[in-house]
Amino acid sequence: MYAIVRSGGKQYRVEEGALVSVDSLAGKVGETVTLGDILVIADGDDVKAGKPALGGAKVTAEIVAHGKGPKIHVLRYKNKTRQRRGRGHRQSETTLRITKIEA
């Protein structure tokens, strides 16, 4: 059984017991979070899709850790003028363990 969940403007395919890194969520490590924006739930050949989301469906997850993603290097450059500017960015993220998928 799996579900497609929207969190932070992105979509994730999740299964029970899986670890997923999503954009930063409020809450402490060990707390339970409910993801309510479920787009698809599939159990074998039985697939339920929402328009745009399924009503009454929810995915329960436990917060495992808070951290930062990989560094992204950004370089601004202007030709023939010796202008260069480098910058880095690390996005804050939360790691979740999916505990339950309810249709």
Structure commentary:
The chain is an all-beta fold. Helix content is 0%, strand content 65%. The protein has strands at residues 2-7, 10-15, 19-23, 32-35, 38-43, 46-49, 58-68, 72-78, 83-89, 92-102. The strands form three sheets. A four-stranded antiparallel β-sheet has the order 2-1-5-6, with no helix packed on it. β1 (2-7) and β2 form a beta hairpin.
Shape: elongated
The level of helicity is under 10%
Strands of the widest sheet, in order across it, are: 2-1-5-6
Number of strands: 10
Name a few traits of the molecule.
single chain, 103 residues, mainly beta, 4-stranded antiparallel sheet, 10 strands
Summarize it:
The protein is an all-beta fold and 103 residues long.
SSE topology sketch:
Elements: E1 2-7, E2 10-15, E3 19-23, E4 32-35, E5 38-43, E6 46-49, E7 58-68, E8 72-78, E9 83-89, E10 92-102
